[in-house]
Amino acid sequence: MSIENALLELRRLDDLAHQDTPLHRLDARAKVLATVLFLVSMLSLGRYEVARLLPFAAFPWLLATLGGVPLSLLLRRAALALPFVLMVGIFNPLFDRTVQLHLGPLAVTGGMLSFSSILLRSMLAVTTGLALVAVTGFDNICRALGRLGMPSLFLVQLQFLYRYIFVLVEEAGRMMHARALRCGAATRPSLREYRSLLGSLLLRTLDRAGRVHQAMLCRGFSGTMPEYGMPTRFGRAELRFCLACGLYLLAVRIFDLPLLLGGMAGGLFR
Amino acid sequence: MHMADALISPAVGGTMWAVSACLLGYASHKLKTENDDSRIPLMGVLGAFIFAAQMINFSIPGTGSSGHLGGGLILAALLGPHAAFLTIASVLAVQSLFFADGGLLAMGCSIFNLGFIPCYLAYPLIYKPLTGGAPSRGRLMAAAVLSAVVGLQLGAFGVVLETTVSGISDLPFGSFLLLMQPIHLAIGLVEGVVTALLLAFLHRVRPELFGIQAAGAQPRSLRPVLAGLGLAAVLVGGGLSWFASADPDGLEWSLAKVSGKEELAAPEDGIHGTLDALQKRVAFLPDYSFKAAAEPEAAPAKGGKEQEAWPNVNAGTSLSGVLGGFMTLCLAGLVGFAVRRFHARA
User: Fold this and answer.
1) Interface probe with A: pick from B160, B169, B282, B306, most Cβ of A within 10 Å
2) DSSP string covering A27-55, please?
3) Which of A80-94, A132-146, B272-286 has the highest mean pLDDT?
4) Does residue B284 sit in helix, strand or coil?
5) Nearest in space to B15 (alpha carbons), one of B206, B257, B327
6) In sequence order, what E strands does chain A have?
7) Please, which pLDDT band fits residue A166 given cuts at 50, 70 and 90?
8) B5-208+222-287+310-345: which CATH architecture?
9) Which residues of chain B have pLDDT under 50?
10) Which residue in the set A126, A161, A259 is minimally distant from B44, CB to CB?
11) Number of neighbours of residue A51 by Cβ within 10 angstroms
């Protein structure tokens, strides 16, 4: 990913997180807990399940729709995350050739089923994770993790990192830009150039860290990040959200919704 | 080496999350007792540096491919293991949340593979003993390359182990190992060289950064390093043979996922009991109570797979795993010494 693109993508999610919808207003803990429940119940399905994964798509779809997140953005990002999963999963159809079911003349092997299952799992997990960030925002997720027991030092680190990613990625972008102006963008830096580039980026980073620390001390840094915005609490709306998501997820985890629907549809024609 | 959610089971993901959460707590606690405020902004900004540095690629001479900095080792060398561990974990969290690079449930695995191994194994056992005081350029290069290679080899091994135990992928343990280890040998070499170049640069222009370490440690002999590596190999081998032991109960938490069966009775003592208790505490769905409701017609279909769900894991495989690991170490050592000699001559 190019430097400019990475910054754009970061900003895009950040902008989406600053919207004001009922979903955005919910306490972040509710959304984090619902996402964890989603991941655990979805990923704990058997490896040959394909149809049963489909009802789980309702959860990211719901987050995206209620939170004003464009589905195209989620799907594009999810597709970008596929290569590693593909690399490992592609071997399933080769190794597992026991026929599991027949669709007309087509014999579907276990490997084909589990491969489709892996792809579907990946799409579902990735879209949900991105949707969570887009409807919650990084600071709120950090705050929620803190209230759920994550060590405060780690949270400070996460928030620091997030703030300075923008600064340093821009710095790196400027350096690459300057290099491209001098010797053309077509060539990648050689190892020698790379050392100088990264070395001076590192020096600037260290200097900046020193200045940041001074500035923080001047403003009375006490070891925790100040919270801005209204403090939210786990109220009725959060409870309703968690209950609704929880019940739906449990239902589709326990019952085979596609099978039930198929059975009902079959009953109509009998 | 970022693990994907799609390839792990909740049992593996949850267990590794619990391990990583404990490590995060431990590192935070350690850092707090050191009470060094100035390190907090340094950690944040260096994390962002790693992030930015990963977007600059360089061309690897003679291959046409490109490489970039991974970052675990250089963070450990600059910040010490605890701060570096927290920094890497935070970088992984941001990558996972914003770029879908590694899954959320799998983040525990990623933190362990890319954080714990370089910071708490490769750095203190290999890098630090080799580079006490003011190391020569060659020594620095050898130490960085050796620890990067060993760190990434162990990390890749972790990925293979976690994926195989999860039982979602059909890739046999041995083939997956053969796929992952050589790639990460190459990545480790590049990582080590880049880290060493950067560290040598910093040694030259900012020697005060390394002042704290220079006062204490002296360059030590290779013996404790080799002992540490041997110990690590035995631990890895031991872990492997635990999975491969004749008593298949060690796998019940993964098999239960695959076969849809109630858990088998695991011995209550030792590592089984501990892991079991740990897992029960962290698992959202303890004892997989959902499985009781799993439709009966699906069970026989899966029952046939039960035997194959854990292919290739037997004493022979674990022996070859240990042997392979040993050979990798030897190879890494050879490369490290070759580079060192080359630099001594240059």
Assistant:
1) B169
2) -HHHHHHHHHHHHHHHHTS-TT-SGGGGG
3) A132-146
4) coil
5) B257
6) 99-103, 106-109
7) confident
8) Orthogonal Bundle (1.10)
9) 212-220, 238-269, 278-326, 328, 346
10) A161
11) 16
- pLDDT, residue A141, reads 92
Please state the rounded mean pLDDT for residues A129-143.
92
CA B226 to chain centre: 19
Q: Among A17-26, A40-49, A261-270, B24-33, where is mean pLDDT lowest?
A: A261-270
Give me the residue spans of the domains in chain B: 5-208+222-287+310-345
3-class secondary structure per residue, B160-228:
HHHHHHHCCCCCCHHHHHHHHHHHHHHHHHHHHHHHHHHHHHHHHHCHHHHHHHHHHCCCCCCHHHHHH
- CA separation for the pair A265, A259 (Å, rounded): 10
Mean pLDDT of chain A: 87
- Nearest-Cα distance to chain B for A23, in Å, is 18
Mutate one of A10, A12, A38, A43 to test the B interface: name it (highest B CB count within 10 A). A43
- For residues B127 and B143, the answer to whether their CB atoms sit within 8 Å is yes
Note the ipTM here.
0.88
